[in-house]
Write a structure and sequence with these properties.
With 701 residues, this protein is α+β, with helices and mostly antiparallel strands. It is built from 22 helices and 19 strands. The strands form 4 sheets. Strands 9, 10, 11, 12, 13, 14, 15, 18 and 19 form a 9-stranded mixed beta sheet that branches. Bound molecules: adenosine-5'-diphosphate and magnesium ion.
Length: 701
């Protein structure tokens, strides 16, 4: 029996939270800090000094010895450099010290992080700057507790080198534009509009011993070989099914660690694929949700080995089995406690809601490619390009009720809302229930789900900062255009109706309520002129188009050089990821698959000889041998081709050219190499196969 724990007691116990600050800081200082957090005003050095001291005392009291500026470079994971609190004093003694200066600014060497050419290696200086809007926290590892201070990371010349900075900038941008619209509707109370996000995280768990035997999982995070097991996910018996004992213990452990960090892990269940699971926290302000999601991923990986497991965050760990994503639930809330995307019972009367809804529709339609890029990495190409969870074509699902309202707007006759109905199940003891006005649509990449949008393209292994700063910026742009037009109008109501009607006409092509996985949709989308970027490489250029650059500049989210740097980093990441995979395949074929198969072929050949000598015909053995050698030949051809292409890629100068070469050649040859290797797995005896199979990985106990 495990002992009962008091969740309210541990919840947030490792966070320098609002209530801790209120308790530990002098009233005046606390008020100043709050003002700074809420209104974005700069904090004076004197106040930072007091906060730093209180933070240090709190951390030391809890057992921390070190602190770190915690930041999110363009690698997609978080970075930290630990410093001890100690400061030397006389007589070879030390005291525990942490100054306001150290709190506000750190100076990690920037040269080892991707910068996309933003600085030469000779200008390695980079700064991490305290983001007081996200609370500091204590992280535990084998070395003890460390005080982590969330920071933004920039170069010596002030350019953002991280994912956090543009996110914070975009939250300010959307606030400014949303407030303009609210004022037009007579709202004088709201002082701030914030974007909220709840990120549902999908992941796989596999047995650690099996994992350790697979180089592809170790180096690339996904399997690069593997024949399908006799059972896949056909029976759908895993989804929401009973959770394995070991996994359930892991989930409990994970929940507790996350709760200590004030992360509201709430829902956990099995997902569609065998060995796949999901964790959803309760939504929060986007910057905090982003920090929290980084920690969720970090703890998922960190805690798994304690339970003999390994956590795979890759978007497509197994070919032929559903991949993982992150559903980014996104909405806009006012500081008066209102969700702007709550339609109310009669949405047709809620024009404020409808205008914001139309802003999202316009934004997504006009910026589909850039939004797709925001949700891209090399791993996600396996999901978005294939016939599974969201297609690479961006469309919006609104559901019946809102689609009907949009039709009415288009016709210039907005008069009614379809309402919810009751349904009974046909068993008299089961009460009748209210049916939602719309069904769920799991195939849409961007779905309106009652009072929020669910952006489902987001890759499972990456930070959610990028899709969110893009989403915030494009919606800010649409709201800005709406506000510009409406503020000038003599008659607001008339101008509003006209604007709404025009927007529906211009952008209704992005709305699609049908099956997003079907081939018909691909054709239909093409007819509508919607972009379909099968690979992320095709979407990178959108980041540096003058239109995009102007938009990011206008809202103060990214400068021109920052846009260029981000495009370059996207190419770079893609190239690196695919090349690591290709090299791993070469290694596994040369050192594991080929020797195993050759040995096995020899034993088959031997038995042919002895069977013949004994007067038996050995037809089956001969056929098997031929099958094996045919596949070895094919494998060897692809192997040589892949090696040559890897060599060739290092000679290509331009980063864009190289990315396309990698996609068009290396990536394709990898599939050519995999095919015969997977065939061979089915021809060779199970005992001698050099690493665990899909069956071993997916159906462990
Ligand atoms: P579903 O199961 O339909 O996807 P849930 O209610 O489980 O929806 O919510 C999924 C995620 O969406 C959770 O993280 C939840 O906190 C988040 N969420 C709910 N409401 C909002 C909102 N207004 N804004 C952003 N996220 C939200
Ligand atoms: Mg969901």
């Amino acid at each position: 029996m495990s002992e009962a724990i008091s969740i309210p007691e541990i919840y947030g116990s490792r966070v320098f939270s609002d209530s801790v600050m209120c308790e530990k800081l002098p009233k005046k200082i606390y008020k100043e800090l709050k003002r700074s957090i809420e209104t974005g005003t700069e904090l004076s050095p004197e106040i930072a000094e007091v906060v730093a001291n209180a933070m240090k005392d709190w951390a030391i009291e809890k057992g921390a010895t070190h602190y770190t500026h915690w930041f999110q470079p363009m690698t997609g994971i978080t970075a930290e450099k630990h410093d001890a609190f100690i400061s030397p004093v006389e007589n070879d003694k030390v005291i525990m010290e942490f100054s306001g200066k150290e709190l506000i600014k750190g100076e990690p060497d920037a040269s080892s992080f991707p910068s996309g050419g933003l600085r030469g290696t000779f200008e390695a200086r980079g700064y991490s700057v305290w983001d007081c809007t996200s609370p500091a926290f204590l992280k535990e590892d084998a070395g003890g507790l460390t005080l982590c201070i969330p920071t933004a990371f920039c170069s010596y010349t002030g350019e953002a080198l991280d994912k956090k900075t543009p996110l914070l900038r975009s939250m300010e941008a959307i606030n400014i534009q949303a407030l303009r619209i609210l004022r037009l509707f007579g709202d004088t109370e709201t002082k701030k509009v914030t974007t909220s996000v709840g990120a549902e995280q999908e992941y796989f768990l596999v047995d650690k011993n099996m994992y350790d035997k697979r180089k592809d999982l170790i180096f690339a995070g996904r399997t690069l070989f593997g024949a399908m097991p006799p059972k896949g996910q056909q029976l759908d018996d895993h989804y929401f099914g009973a959770i394995r004992e070991r996994v359930s213990e892991y989930m409990k452990d994970l929940d507790i660690e996350l709760w200590k960090l004030g992360i509201s892990a709430k829902t956990e269940h099995n997902e569609a694929a065998p060995a796949q699971h999901e964790l959803a926290p309760i939504y929060d302000d986007t910057n905090i949700a982003t920090d929290h999601n980084q920690l969720v991923m970090e703890y998922m990986k960190k805690l798994a080995p304690r339970h003999g497991l390994e956590c795979l965050l890759h978007e497509k760990p197994f070919a032929g089995v559903n991949g993982s994503g992150k559903h980014n639930n996104w909405s806009l809330a006012t500081d008066t406690g209102k969700n702007i995307f709550s339609p109310g019972k009669e949405p047709h009367k809620n024009k404020l809601f409808l205008l914001f809804l139309l802003a999202v529709i316009k934004a997504v339609d006009e910026n589909a490619v850039i939004l797709r890029l925001g949700a891209s990495n090399a791993g996600n190409d396996h999901r978005l390009g294939a016939a599974e969870a969201p297609p690479a074509i961006i469309s919006i699902f609104l559901g019946e009720q809102l689609e009907d309202i949009l039709n009415q707007i288009e016709l210039g006759n907005l008069t009614s809302s379809k309402s919810e109905t009751s349904m009974t199940i046909g068993v008299s003891t089961i009460p009748s229930i209210k049916k939602d006005v719309t069904d769920r649509n799991r195939t849409s990449p961007f779905a309106f789900t009652g009072n929020k949008f669910e952006f489902r393209m987001v890759p499972s292994s990456d930070s959610i900062a990028c899709p969110n700063y893009i989403l915030n910026t494009i919606v800010a742009e649409a709201l800005m255009q709406f506000a510009d037009e409406l503020e000038k109008a003599d008659n607001f109501d008339e101008a509003l109706d006209k604007l709404m009607q025009r927007t529906v006409k211009e952008h209704k092509r992005i709305i699609f309520n049908g099956n997003g996985y079907s081939d018909e949709w691909v054709k239909e989308a093409e007819r509508r002129g919607l972009p379909n970027c099968k690979s992320m490489v095709d979407s990178v250029e959108s980041m540096v188009e003058p239109r995009t650059v102007e938009m990011f500049k206008r809202h103060g989210v990214l400068t021109e050089v920052e846009c260029a740097a981000r495009a370059e980093i996207s190419y770079e990441n893609y190239i690196n990821r695919v090349l690591i995979e290709a090299r791993t395949m070469v290694d596994m074929v040369a050192k594991q698959i080929k020797p195993t198969v050759i040995n096995y072929a020899k034993s088959v050949a031997d038995s042919v000889v002895s069977l013949n000598a004994a007067g038996a015909d050995a037809e089956v053995e001969k056929e098997l041998l031929k099958n094996i050698t045919d596949n070895i030949t094919e494998m060897d051809k692809a192997y040589k081709k892949l090696r040559a292409e890897i060599d060739k890629s290092s000679e290509i100068e331009g980063i864009k050219e190289k990315a396309f070469f990698v996609k068009d050649h290396i990536f394709t040859t990898m599939s050519e190499l995999r095919k015969p290797a997977d065939e061979l797995e089915m021809l060779v005896s199970e005992e001698c196969w050099p690493f665990p199979t899909y069956g071993d990985l997916l159906f462990y106990s």
